[in-house]
Structures are given as structure tokens and as C-alpha cells.
Write a sequence for this structure.
């Protein structure tokens, strides 16, 4: 009895979580413009989507900004994590808490304050401001993914590298980087996803020519939700799902040999 | 033994977060010597090793390698290699690449690397393990790889930081013998850090006993065991009874309510002293008025001998004997003058009175972390 209740509960949770998305995906194949009537299966909306220049342009913007912001965030975040790791205890916990703020802070506040800052500094809103804004909220995610990897690392590994003839830079490249690579990769992928996904902060920091995809979708829905948006959302969902699966698979593969070792002990 | 000084430490002082961990270390290390730094945790032995390795720079004092001051020479330019606590093998590289690591950096040619890695793996008895991941190896095998990885660089000095700490007793004994063999075959200097006195006595040419950032005694294992300079050393190296006593005059000491003849002298008349007696030097005889009598409080079987706790006068004695008296019975204690070691009074508390031999805090900590 208890078992059945358990399963039922899980099923309900999943239905609530994923039903809306499946409705959306189903609708993206619906011939009718209406969301309530099913008139037949079609790929038309996908075709239209890929002929819509506004959407394609903003998709391009989104991808470029995500790539640049995630790359810079990964470099900055990794360097910051290593710095934090080597700090003294009190400074370290202080800096880690400061690092959390951009994540905890309301996006609205971050967005507005960034916009005010850019205006005050006379920086025209556009690609540059978007990239800077995205870096601000991506760096913490990289730090939070890299730090645990550093903590898991045997502290003596760096010393061992120096001992065997590495100068500090070689030790970093040949030993530290490979050790924390899983954290760096996860941080990078998370940055990409958050950057692609971000609406609120981008809304305040974008210029007229640098609309990102979420902003374009938002302005399209203000008139009427076009089925093209359904198609686009379906594509985004599938892409994110694939990235997630890759990330999890990667994690699984990394942890497996360690588990074996524990079992052997 | 060749007595060339290879490393000299002069007045080394070191402070971490306001705590003085080394208080003036002076130490000479000779070519082809097996030196062990021995002491309880927190005595500064690992810090001393790290100073030799170049991982930390001393606050005060100088380090000399072959007469040259090397305080500011980084680890990668020193002719030493280290076997770290918990091995510190590179998990992202396989066995071959771990061992080849140092040679790769020196741009040694590929066939030469293959030859020398092969030789090293043979030396540590792990031939054919080239392609294994280091995480697939047992603790003992990882240990050997760590040794091979260090030795392949032909260091003049090999530093070993509690290398056997995480191994079980049997493996530990095997590795002790093997390490000594490797040291003799390679003809290099080993500086070995441990808190295990038996390990130190088994392997070393020279033992350096440390406590609270100072060196207590430097000597051969025999010297350290037979002629400890103070009660701390006596107690740390093997078990000892340390009793308060008063030196009446040369060769006459009072303790446990009796006067005893002894072989030591050179103290002030009536100077308070520590009297150190090894448990195995004490002979139990039937109780009588001629000898010091005591009540047996506890008897434990230890394999080779019984450990007998006797309360005599106001002191508790630990006595090793092959015969077990009854608990509660009264026994007599006899000593020959040679068994009584008189030492200057020190504030040393007993450190390993009832320490179980291998089950120390540091070891179990390692297990948890893995």
C-alpha cells in the first residue's frame, strides 16, 4: 500500500513538472493556431521559425553572448576559486559569502543596478553591457563548482608536482587543471545555460540591436503567442535536456572508478 | 659510513599563526644516511621535512645543501624528491605516466623514459602495472608507485613523510624491510618522518627525537634506546617507568621509599631527578623484607610477555615478564644498578603509557578521508 502511494506521489510530481512542457511540445506540432483544438500534425511552425529573421538574429545574439560570457566567466571564476581556496580561513568564508550575493540577490535588483551603473559610466547599452552583466551572474556558478573540486583534491598534489620538477605554472597546468576539470566543465555549461536562459537582467542591459532570444520571445508573446514560439521553446527544452544528460553522464563516468575503489577496501 | 655532510640545518625557527612550531633546529645529515625524525604529532617533524624539501621557507635560520645556502631555492630546483603522506599520486594519470612525470619535465627522450620507468617498476615490484589507473591500486601498491615516482629522478636525498601511515601492520613491516633495502641499493640519503618508534628503531642509522619544536636527542637507535637523554625520550622510545627520585650522592639514588645503587653520577647532592626503568629490566621475586614489595593490580597477555601493573610504595610500575603472577598477590621487585637510569628532572608527562601500538589518531583520520 505504502509503495503504491509512494509511486503515485512521484508520478503526480512529475506530471505537474512536465505536463506543461509536453503540452507546449505537442502544440508546436499542431496545425491549428488555436491552443485548444488539434487539427493535424505539421512541421510548419518549425519551418516558419527558421525563416523568421528577428528570431534568428536574436538566437545568434544569445549564442554569441553566452559563449563569450561563459568563456570569460570560466577563466575568471576558476582563477577566483583558486585564490579563495588559498586564503586564510576567515577571509575565505567572507569572500565565499560575498560570492553568493549575485546568486541570492533578486535578478531585478541586479538588472536595475547594472543598468544604472552603465548609464552612469556612459557605456552604451549593447553587446558589451550584456556580456558584462552575464559575466557578473555566471562567475559565482563557476566558483561554486570549482571550489569543491579543489577541496577534494589532495593538498599535497601541488607540492608533489613542484617536487618532481614543475615550476608553479607547470604544476598548475599539468596537475591542478586536470584535477579540477570536471568542476570547470560543469561551471562552463551552467554559465552557458544561465546566460541563454536569462531574461530579467538582460532586459535591463540590452540595447536595441542586441536583443536576446528570451527578450524577443517576450515581446512576441505580448501581442499573441505565436505557435512559432512553441516550436522555439520545444527546441530550447530539448537542447537543455541534452546538455543536462551529458553533464550527468560525465559525472557518473568520473565517480564510477572511485566507487569501485571504495568497495575494494 | 661515509660521513660527508650533505644537508645542514642551522638554528631553524618557524612560526605558523603565532605558534612557534620549530624553536631552533640544528641538524646535520650525511651522505647515504637513513635519518628518521621521530616524535609525537605536532612536534615539528613534518615541518622540518618540508623545509628540507623547500615547500616552506624558515622564518629564521639557514638550510645548506652541500655547503650552499638554499633557503630561497624552490622545490623544483632542489636535488631532493619526496614521498608524501597519502602518496599524492596524480589521479588523472596512469601508473606509467605518474612514474614518468619527472622525466617528462626534463625532456628525456621517449625510449629512455620507457627504459627507466621499466627499471623503477621492477625495483618496486610492480612490473606490468604500467597501464593501470592509480585509483585501482591497493594502498601498498600506491605507496610503491609514489616511491618509484620519486626515485626515478635520481635524487641525492629522498624525503619520506609518514609513508607507511595508512598501511596495515603486516604490510607496514614488509615495507619497512623493503624501504631499507631500496635505500641501500640506491645508495642515497633517506630522511624519514614517523611517529612510530618501532619503525624508527628498525630502519634508521640515526634517529632524531623531537618534541614541541626542539630536538631532544640525536643518536643511533641503540643509543636512543639504551641511553635516552631525558625522561621524554625514554618514555617515547618504548615503555618506561618514570619515577621521582632524589640523588643522594654519585651512584646512590632514593626512590620508592628505598635507596638504590646506580651507575650514574654528576648531579648536585640531594638533587631531585627522574628515575627511568625499562619494564623488561625489572625482575619479579617472591615478596620479602629484603626487596621493594608491591601489589599486582592487573595482568595482560601481550604475546611475547605479560604486561603486569604493580602498585608499590606510591608509584605504579609497568613490568614485563614471561611469568604471570596472580592479580592481588604481593610480589617483590628487584633491580640491578645498570637498570636504573637517572635523568635531569623535566616536566615531561607520560606520553605513550598505554598507547595501543598501531591504532593512532592520524592513521584512522587517513582512512576516513579516503
Amino acid at each position: 500500500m505504502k509503495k503504491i502511494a509512494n509511486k503515485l506521489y512521484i508520478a503526480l510530481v512529475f506530471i505537474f513538472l512536465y505536463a506543461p512542457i509536453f503540452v507546449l511540445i505537442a502544440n508546436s506540432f499542431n496545425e491549428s493556431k488555436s491552443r485548444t483544438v488539434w487539427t493535424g500534425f505539421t512541421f510548419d511552425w518549425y519551418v516558419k521559425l527558421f525563416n523568421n529573421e528577428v528570431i534568428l538574429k536574436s538566437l545568434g545574439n544569445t549564442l554569441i553572448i553566452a559563449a563569450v560570457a561563459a568563456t570569460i566567466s570560466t577563466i575568471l571564476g576558476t582563477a577566483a576559486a583558486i585564490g579563495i581556496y588559498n586564503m586564510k580561513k576567515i577571509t575565505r568564508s567572507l569572500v565565499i559569502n560575498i560570492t553568493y550575493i549575485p546568486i541570492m540577490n533578486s535578478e531585478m535588483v541586479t538588472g536595475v543596478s547594472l543598468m544604472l551603473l552603465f548609464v552612469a559610466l556612459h557605456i552604451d547599452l549593447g553587446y558589451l553591457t550584456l556580456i558584462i552583466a552575464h559575466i557578473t551572474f555566471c562567475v559565482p556558478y563557476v566558483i561554486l563548482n570549482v571550489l569543491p573540486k579543489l577541496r577534494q583534491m589532495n593538498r599535497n598534489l601541488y607540492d608533489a608536482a613542484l617536487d618532481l620538477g614543475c615550476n608553479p605554472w607547470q604544476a598548475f597546468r599539468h596537475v591542478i587543471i586536470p584535477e579540477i576539470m570536471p568542476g570547470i566543465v560543469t561551471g562552463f555549461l551552467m554559465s552557458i545555460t544561465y546566460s541563454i536562459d536569462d531574461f530579467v537582467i538582460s532586459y535591463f542591459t540590452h540595447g536595441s540591436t542586441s536583443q536576446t532570444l528570451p527578450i524577443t520571445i517576450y515581446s512576441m508573446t505580448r501581442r499573441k503567442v505565436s505557435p512559432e514560439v512553441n516550436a522555439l521553446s520545444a527546441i530550447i527544452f530539448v537542447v537543455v535536456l541534452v546538455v543536462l544528460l551529458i553533464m550527468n553522464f560525465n559525472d557518473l563516468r568520473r565517480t564510477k572508478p572511485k566507487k569501485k575503489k571504495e568497495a575494494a577496501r | 659510513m661515509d660521513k660527508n655532510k650533505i644537508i645542514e640545518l642551522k638554528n631553524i625557527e618557524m612560526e605558523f599563526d603565532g605558534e612557534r612550531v620549530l624553536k631552533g633546529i640544528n641538524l646535520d645529515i650525511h651522505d647515504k644516511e637513513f635519518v628518521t625524525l621521530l616524535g609525537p604529532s605536532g612536534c615539528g617533524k613534518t615541518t622540518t621535512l618540508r623545509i628540507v624539501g623547500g615547500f616552506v621557507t624558515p622564518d629564521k635560520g639557514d638550510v645548506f645543501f652541500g655547503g650552499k645556502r638554499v633557503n630561497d631555492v624552490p622545490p623544483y630546483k632542489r636535488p631532493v624528491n619526496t614521498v608524501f603522506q597519502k602518496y599524492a599520486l596524480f589521479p588523472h594519470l596512469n601508473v606509467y605516466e605518474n612514474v614518468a612525470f619527472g622525466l617528462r619535465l626534463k625532456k628525456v627522450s621517449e625510449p629512455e623514459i620507457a627504459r627507466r620507468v621499466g627499471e623503477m617498476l621492477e625495483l618496486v615490484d610492480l612490473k606490468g602495472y604500467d597501464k593501470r589507473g592509480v585509483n585501482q591500486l591497493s594502498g601498498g601498491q600506491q605507496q610503491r608507485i609514489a616511491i618509484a615516482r620519486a626515485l626515478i629522478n635520481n635524487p641525492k636525498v629522498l624525503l619520506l613523510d609518514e609513508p607507511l601511515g595508512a598501511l596495515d601492520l603486516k604490510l607496514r613491516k614488509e615495507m619497512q624491510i623493503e624501504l631499507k633495502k631500496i635505500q641501500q641499493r640506491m645508495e642515497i640519503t633517506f630522511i624519514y618522518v614517523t611517529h612510530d618508534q618501532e619503525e624508527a628503531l628498525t630502519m634508521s642509522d640515526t634517529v632524531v627525537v623531537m618534541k614541541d619544536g626542539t630536538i631532544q636527542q640525536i643518536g643511533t637507535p641503540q643509543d636512543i634506546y639504551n641511553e635516552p637523554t631525558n625522561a621524554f625520550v625514554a618514555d617515547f622510545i618504548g615503555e618506561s617507568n618514570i619515577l621521582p627520585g632524589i640523588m643522594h650522592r654519585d651512584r646512590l639514588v632514593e626512590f620508592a621509599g628505598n635507596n638504590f645503587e646506580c651507575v650514574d653520577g654528576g648531579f648536585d647532592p640531594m638533587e631531585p631527578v627522574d628515575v627511568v626503568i625499562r619494564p623488561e629490566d625489572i625482575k619479579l621475586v617472591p615478596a620479602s623484607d629484603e626487596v621493594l614489595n608491591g601489589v599486582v593490580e592487573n595482568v595482560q597477555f601481550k604475546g611475547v610477555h605479560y604486561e603486569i601493573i604493580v602498585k608499590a610504595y606510591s608509584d605504579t610500575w609497568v613490568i614485563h615478564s614471561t611469568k604471570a603472577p596472580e592479580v592481588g598477590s604481593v610480589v617483590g621487585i628487584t633491580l640491578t644498578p645498570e637498570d636504573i637510569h637517572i635523568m635531569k628532572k623535566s616536566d615531561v608527562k607520560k606520553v605513550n603509557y598505554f598507547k595501543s601500538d598501531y591504532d593512532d589518531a592520524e592513521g584512522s583520520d587517513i582512512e576516513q578521508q579516503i
